[in-house]
Specification:
The structure is a homodimer of 509-residue chains.
Chain A: E1 6-7, H1 10-16, H2 26-47, E2 53-62, E3 65-72, H3 82-87, E4 91-92, H4 108-120, E5 124-130, E6 136-144, E7 149-158, E8 164-173, H5 183-193, E9 198-202, E10 208-211, H6 234-243, H7 249-256, H8 262-271, H9 285-297, H10 313-323, E11 328-333, E12 337-339, E13 342-352, E14 363-368, E15 371-373, H11 381-387, E16 397-398, E17 404-405, E18 408-416, H12 433-485, H13 489-508
Helix pairs in contact in A: 2-4, 5-10, 6-9, 7-8, 11-12, 12-13
């Protein structure tokens, strides 16, 4: 038996378990590929403070085969990094960093390339230029799944019209769907939560569509933070003690954690029976446990929240107005909060009335770090929080266990340095109590505003109805009086005017 | 930005995403740890054709901290393999093999050790002896999560009473629960689907419990098979063409695949515009595509099914009888079938009446490759197939979208060389059409038998009622006749006997 024991590369693992990454059906595979490429482009543009202009194109190759192209105007990628970013799973810059970004794991785009390779045998094609003064590079590469390493097939300098940007091309087996769950709808949802983005989209055999930005303002830059002590466990602490450059415990605590000043560092260390000058490497597992226990009893301020970049109420409203034709809009951005030491922040937008379907269940758009979530709605904290909110008290109908009914779009955004997804395919946010609570508070605030609007709307409608009655019946009374009393036309008009005026005045008081 | 790009080890990935492996809550973490150790022990024992005798012990260390010990009488592990099997994720013997086994990925036990290390800082302790003539070894090791490599802390020879076996000890933070979803219930469910296993269990502060085997017969050995051509895609074919030792395409097809003989090999190759003597390494991506297209149009027999080892109808019934006190039992083992080229087989057992709760929803026990599935019932093919079966036609009550109601236990086993789980934590089987179909057929067969039993039961109950009427009223008729006709006691008795006899005979016809 011993001879058969061997290492399994992470690429082999995910090849066999591709459903874990969102490649379980041909329709989903196509959408996931586009999603991963778009996520990467937007992260790169924002990190370089560039307003993103994306091109997304799907070229049909045969019935169930497509070439997906995503091109951006981002900062480009330095030549040396290209093979590993696109041809190695679990490689990236975002995993070891506490900061809000779309990508987290360093898996997505390589997995999409691997799926393409698996279903069509075709390599992934990358072109990238890292600025005017640099040459553009063309790469063709495949993944050696047994070693999880890129194998470069072609590598050459090319002429490129653009001064900077990256273009990715993946050929894959897939199924193209239009409509509510199609690619165009997905891209529209993306722009809805990213009002600074413009996407030019060309579906297979379709007209080019331009989904325009609602705002020229880039999102606030999200900064990197250190871990907060409340989110650290013994094992992680031991690792940090081993890895640190600090020579003394006090310095270690101050430099490696958020919100630990000299005073709290000293008190944590001394309360755990250690000295501030102890070398971090010499702290035993038992002492590390004592440190964790002390930390949990110490009052430490909440982590900084400049690691988050919410969309903002104003921009959510503007974006909703641009993307859908409703009568009324509102948005709520909550203050940041914390789960397991990780800062997070929730936002809710509502659009009501107008062209939205009045007799249908409300439409829920879910986002995590500005990325639309398309599947597993039932498993998502956002969905659960909508159900746990009593929308009837805001003037809507709602059956038990269901979304409210009415001409309503609910948009939910959860932003965090580490979104707790229920699976790697990032389809649903795990139901941490803290997240559910914040979501409910946001729904309540937005819901109250909606309730007021709906009530006001009802009052106006009542008024309107009464006014219509007056308009309708008073002329008849005029005609009747004229006949009975033998009034002249002028007298009749005067009676009608007086009556209308009196009733209007009585109606308004 | 380029400088921050770096490799993420699979251990780091799963440390941060521990919920993906079933360590998302302290209760689940404890159960998952036991599950992983038990799965490994059972796989090892069966592979070595040893009747498994397991010891499972949970020693309380402090309120939310436990030491989990699992010891087996298996073949032991050779010294050199121990560190990597227990201290490296994605390492094992089962991933690259098409054969029914509990473990698939080479992640489980190392992940459990990593979780223990993370929450308590304590290493994993392994003792193992690979036979009488070998020395027993004691290992203490941790995982270097940044490199996904084991770090051995202690390594020494020890005296061990047993001639062979393996003992694993993991200390972790957890919550211990009793009852329906507790550890003992889990182990009982394990023995239910593994009637050849005996487990001695000692919970924290509890009496020792012995869960006894129902059968001394080991399961049929599952053999390894080659992949079936229908389950192969272009990318995988290209990889196989690269890796093969065959020098000619014909030999390649015959040796690397199931069910491809010389005739079909030749016809596939020639229909794809290639020659049987072509070197596999020289087949282009385009030609590989042509091969795949031809394969899909070629009639190839279903894969061999000796890679599967079902429990068997007789043993399921025996096991149900031993484990629960019901009135009636049945079991159905379907013939093997195939999804995406992978052979699979489903089995269903029913227990009805007796001590089982009559007014509750039926209890569903789900198994995949003999391992109980504890979570995510709603997402599982087995659950969906139960709902899609009309149990009312078998004499049970059933509301829409719910399990049937009645004193019923439904046991479902899906065995396959590659069980398509919906997540790495292996909690639910994905709903492939072929699997759902087989499950429904098995439920129907078992359900029809149940329906006959329930109907017979109803007939017996009717009979019983009629008999009671006779017993109750005839004596009164006797008394009345005696009074009216002035009969003697003997005459009265004779009349009563004659009447009873007549009515009994009429009732039975």
């Amino acid at each position: 038996m011993a001879k058969q024991q061997r290492e399994i590369s992470v690429s082999e693992f995910f090849t066999k378990n591709r459903h874990l990454l969102g490649f379980d059906s041909p329709t989903k595979a196509l959408l996931t590929t586009i999603k991963e490429a778009v996520d990467n482009s937007l992260d790169a543009c924002e990190e370089a403070q560039i307003l993103p202009d994306l091109l997304v194109e799907i070229v049909p190759v045969s019935e169930n085969r497509f070439r997906v192209i995503v091109e951006d105007n981002g900062p480009g990628i330095v030549k040396e990094q290209i093979p590993r970013i696109f041809g190695k799973l679990l490689y990236g810059s975002k995993f070891h960093r506490l900061r809000q970004s779309r990508g987290q794991q360093g898996i997505g785009i390589s997995a999409a390339g691997m799926y393409g390779q698996l279903t069509t045998g075709k390599p992934i094609v990358i072109e990238s230029r890292a600025g005017k003064r640099k040459k553009a590079h063309h790469y063709t590469l495949v993944i050696d799944t047994q070693r999880n390493e890129p194998v470069v097939k072609k590598d050459r300098e090319i002429e490129w019209g653009k001064s900077q940007g990256t273009r990715v091309e993946i050929e894959l087996e897939g199924v193209y769907k239009r409509g509510k769950h199609g690619v165009e709808a997905y891209l529209r949802q993306t722009v809805l939560a990213n009002p600074h983005v413009t996407i030019l989209y060309k579906g297979p055999g379709e007209e080019e569509v331009r989904i325009e930005r609602a705002s020229n303002a880039l999102p606030e830059e999200a900064l990197e933070i250190k871990p907060h002590p409340y989110g650290v466990e013994v094992g992680m602490l031991l690792q940090m003690l081993k890895d640190t450059n600090s020579r003394q415990l006090k310095g270690f605590f101050q430099s490696e954690f958020s919100r630990v000043g000299p005073k709290s560092a000293t008190s944590i260390i001394e309360a755990s029976g250690l000295s501030t000058t102890t070398s971090p490497r010499r702290v035993s597992a038992e002492r590390a446990e004592a440190l964790i226990a002390t930390i949990r009893e110490t009052k430490i301020p909440a982590p900084p929240t400049n690691c988050l970049s919410p969309i903002g109420e104003e921009r959510i409203e503007a974006s909703l107005k641009l993307q859908m034709n409703a009568d009324w809009y509102t948005a709520v951005t909550r203050s940041p909060s914390v789960y397991r030491g990780n800062p997070f922040q929730v936002e809710v937008g509502l659009a009501y009335g107008g062209d939205l379907g009045a007799d249908e269940l409300a439409t829920l758009y879910r986002y995590a770090n500005r990325v639309p979530l398309q599947y597993q709605q039932g498993a998502c904290a956002a969905f659960k929080a909508v159900l746990a909110t009593n929308w009837r008290s805001y003037g809507l109908q709602q059956s038990r266990g269901a979304l409210p009914t009415g001409p309503l779009v609910i948009m939910v955004h959860v932003a965090s340095v580490w979104v707790p997804f229920t699976s790697e395919s990032k389809e649903a946010v795990a139901s941490y109590d803290e997240i559910i609570k914040e979501l409910k508070l946001a729904f309540q605030e937005a819901g109250r505003r909606l309730g007021r609007y709906i009530k006001r709307g009802k009052r106006i409608a009542d008024d309107e109805r009464k006014r219509k009655y007056i308009e309708k019946y008073i002329p008849h009374i005029g005609i009747a009086l004229k006949e009975i009393l033998g009034l002249t036309d002028r007298q009749e008009k005067k009676v009608v005017d007086t009556l209308t005026d009196t009733l209007e005045r009585s109606r308004k008081t």
